[in-house]
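Dear support,

I submitted the protein below through the web form. The confirmation email said the job was done, but the results page showed an empty box. After a refresh the structure appeared. I'm attaching both so you can tell me whether what I see now is the final result or a partial one.
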Amino acid sequence: MSETGNRLRKLLESPNFDPQNYVKQLSQQSDGDRDLQEHRQKIQTLADETAQNLKKNVYKNYRQFIETAKEISFLESEMYQLSHILTEQKSIMESITQALLSTDKDETSKEMQAAFPKETEDLKQRTLTSLLEKVEGAKNIMDTPGRHLVYNGDLVEFDVDSMSPIQKAHAFLMNDCLLIATWLPNRRGTVKYKYNALYDLESFAVVNVKDNPPMKDMFKILMFPDSRIFQVENSKVKKEWLEILDETKKKKASQDKHKKEEEVPTSPVRAEVSNNPFDVDDDEPADAEESVDLSLEWIQELPEDLDVCIAQRDFEGAVDLLDKLNEYLKDQPATQTVKELKAKVDERVRQLTEVLVFELSPDRSLRGGPKATRRAVSQLIRLGQSTKACELFLKNRAAAVQTAIRQLRIEGATLLYIHKLCNIFFTSLLETAKEFETDFAGNTGCYSAFVVWSRSAMTMFVDAFSKQVFDSKESLSTAAECVKVAKEHCQQLTEIGLDQTFTLQSLLVKDVKAALLSYKDIIIEATKHRNSEEMWRRMNLMTPEALTKLKDEMRSCGISFQQYTGDDCWVNLSYTIVAFTKQMMSFLEEGLKLYFPELHMVLLESLREIILVAVQHVDYSLRCEQDPEKKAFVLQNATFLHDTVLPVVERRFEEGVGKPAKQLRDLRKSTRPVRINPESTTSLV
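What the results page shows now:
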């Protein structure tokens, strides 16, 4: 077995071993299935022995494996350090070489420019022209005289938020501007790029982006109101871009300054000197320029610091710098240098104001509630623009309220929707009022603007409210409950001294009046329909439960009903009178929930018209009925109306309104049942 295993092991380990050929030969030499099974068993035994030997070798050399791994790790660390040192040395050597070459190049360029100024300028122009011929849409750039190319190179633009590559670009730095062109995927002839943007050197700032692998070799261009990030080929090119950009910007600023000084007109006429000691010269004294020290480092760097603060959205830092400058120049004379500095600062103030205005615009995200606007509002107030801050704050909140109302889903019962609508609107209004009081505590003149805004916001709310409650033809009871909910929420605003109840009532009065009149007409039509089918018979409720339910309903309306019922299920009143009583009392209760002072006469006249329909029907029946028994039953119903129902209506109306109901009292007196003859024939006058 061991000898066979050794032979099999040698066969399997030989370099010329072919598994397919071996299996084929083995199948031909085998007598049957039994031989193949035995051979398979031998191979399996050999595999087990090999695995066992391998495991023993691992255990035997375990310590040696660990030591070898440590040595490999240590060697890897040393190789990494060595590579890092070599890279640094290479970078230093390249920097030294580049510095020497640039120095020689600058000296040569200066010598050539001094010797051949026109030829040098023409060379720069031709170089820029040849390069711009490759840019689609950049033909007009060469129209500016004196413009020439300073530096150019390939870039990769990255997204500022996600830091993912957007597109390949090529930048052309000229002596007064920076051109950004994007690569064309489908090139046409010599055209390789497409015009993307052109920035004046004074309109942007350049910021170095710290390397954070894999994001490295990047710099950021900050301009209002955006910023762009570009990546270059390596750190050397990045350094060149930063240095050349900075040097070109400084040279452009210096040239502009010299141009302004040359443009100042100087009079060749010698000024007359007055000997009058009392004459006062209106102009600034010559030594006033020296009296204002603007050479401080923070003043010299102030415009650029403001640009950086605006680009980085550090609004507080920008306003702090402006306050510091204003404090420093408060008692200083307005010299020419001070005016120039203020002109530069005023331009930054304008940019800062535009950024803050953009922060408060409704186009921005409206999440975060009123407190999210506090930062921009406070800085605008510090800049002395409280009126604009107030206007933008209220516009922002109006857009937020409108968006919240629009996003509210209309589902389920109307009353549930109104609960959600009132909760969203009045909570937002309350939060806005508190935030307004916090932000504009020292600007009492802005409070009138908030009152006007709150009315316009209430108009927006009532539009959504009426559309859901009144335009959808909901029942009067549902409308009354919805109006009651709105009134209760409106009362919450009195906590901060803002009473919008009158505004709510004045905006709802038209829809509520229409709902009352519409429901009044429905009751009158239903009453007339029942009157046309009146048989003047007693009402049979069939079950004691139904009678108990009717008693409870009448008791809840405040009507004494016991004397008109007996032990059985009969009621000594007609169905028409009972239905009319229930419907009219329901109308009265819902009308009191909807009551506004402006609707006093509307509700009163509606009740009067409804009562007259029933009274006239009873009066007509008494005059026309010939059967004595039915006439007595009609009289009993008339007495119920006059002595029980009408006093309850009159009293409940006066309790709910707080005013006497003279029309209802006069109506009750004019409809008193009287005897027409001694034989108990009665009528209603």
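Response: this is the final, complete result; the empty box was a page-load delay. The longest helix spans residues 62-115.
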